[in-house]
Design brief:
Shape: elongated
Structural class: alpha+beta
Number of helices: 5
Largest sheet: 6 strands, mixed
Number of strands: 6
Distance between the termini: 55 Å
Strand order of the largest sheet: 1-2-5-6-4-3
Helix content: 25-40%
């Protein structure tokens, strides 16, 4: 059987074609420079103190009320998944009835706990503001800022206005980053 291997014309041609090929030398991996910390991206904390946040997420607002936020490094497939009507979330936080300061604290706690538990897809219900003075709520805009600029931003890869069955413009769906070790 060893003789038949030596007589295989394809194998012989392959060995001749690659006879002078040598393995590449191992090189140390190149490391990208860390992006500069943004000066902006701070939200007031309860009590007036301010804390710098992680790298801010880029936020886009469409005319139909859809809001999308993502880190520049987040793959577009994650943003696409956030708008999928079949998206299943791992947990939900309902902020109805809370004031903005309370909501900011609850959002940070919820995202931190969800990430620690290994959850990736969560929903935050902010309401549409129909019962707010003037019929326009401020909670959604505050939560968007918290997710994109505030202390909660370090847990977030991307977020978007929820698909209709998860609350539509009255909720946001969030893709959390992997657990911090």
């Amino acid at each position: 059987m060893a003789g038949s291997r030596d007589q295989d014309p394809d194998r012989h041609a392959f060995e001749r074609a690659f006879a002078d090929v040598r393995p590449l030398r191992a090189r140390a991996p190149k490391r990208a420079a860390a992006p500069p910390e943004p000066d902006a991206g701070r939200l007031p904390r309860p009590g007036g103190a301010r804390r710098p946040s992680a790298q801010a997420l880029r936020v886009e607002r469409e005319g139909n009320g859809i809001i999308t936020g993502r880190r520049p490094s987040t793959h577009v497939s994650i943003v696409d998944a956030l708008e999928d009507p079949r998206l299943e979330v791992d947990d939900e936080l309902d902020l109805h009835g809370l004031r903005t300061r309370q909501a900011g604290t609850e959002v940070r706690r919820f995202l931190q706990e969800s990430q620690r538990e290994g959850k990736r897809w969560v929903s935050i219900v902010v309401g549409k503001g129909l019962h707010s003075p003037g019929g326009k709520g401020s909670l959604r805009d505050y939560v968007v800022r918290a997710l994109s600029e505030g202390a909660s931003a370090r847990f977030v890869l991307a977020f978007r206005t929820a698909p209709r069955r998860l609350g539509g413009t009255g909720a946001l769906v969030v893709r959390l980053g992997d657990r911090l070790r």
